[in-house]
Design goal:
It contains 6 helices and 5 strands, in the order ααββββααβαα. It is α+β, with helices and mostly antiparallel strands. It has one domain: Nonspecific Lipid-transfer Protein, Chain A. A 5-stranded mixed β-sheet has the order 3-2-1-4-5. It is globular and about 45 Å long.
Length: 154
């Protein structure tokens, strides 16, 4: 598969935008996608840890922590426990399970900084989860609003 990078001017523009809204949208989407799977005891060591997902070609840094209720967006913390960096395409390939994180790591396309033990724990826990195939259509605004409405009315 040909490597598609986000054009540098677009990445530079995204890097200038406030970071918190991106993190908030990311955490909401992951919480909707994974539901209560993040409340498992397997995730306990990640509770309260500051994590940053860095999308290198997009100039995008997503900051969050894990709470008993799922992922919570955070403003840029003074101390980041774990940073995971890769290109947008590599993160998409990981999400679609079309690429193995170990392969990306050893080819230096996926970089972990900080407490790499936490990164390894997250990777192994995600690998052990039976996740449904990622369907990007589920992230369309109307579908997200419908799921949110269903949750609020339940």
């Amino acid at each position: 598969m040909r490597k598609l990078l986000i054009p540098q001017p677009l990445g530079n523009f995204i890097a200038m935008l406030p970071r918190y809204p991106h993190s908030l949208l990311f955490t909401r989407a992951v919480n909707l996608a994974l539901g209560d799977k993040l409340s498992s005891e397997d995730w306990q060591p990640l509770h309260g840890k500051q994590v940053c997902i860095r999308v290198t070609d997009a100039g995008l840094n997503l900051h969050f922590t894990l709470s008993p209720n799922g992922l919570v967006a955070t403003r840029v913390p003074a101390l980041i426990d774990l940073t995971i960096s890769a290109s947008a395409q590599d993160f998409i390939l990981l999400a679609l399970r079309k690429e193995d994180p170990d392969t990306l790591f050893f080819s230096r396309r996926l970089v972990m900084e900080g407490d790499t033990e936490l990164g390894l724990l997250a990777k192994n826990t995600l690998d052990a989860m039976e996740l449904p195939p990622l369907d990007f259509r589920a992230l369309l605004p109307l579908r997200l609003l419908d799921r949110l409405r269903t949750r609020l009315l339940a």
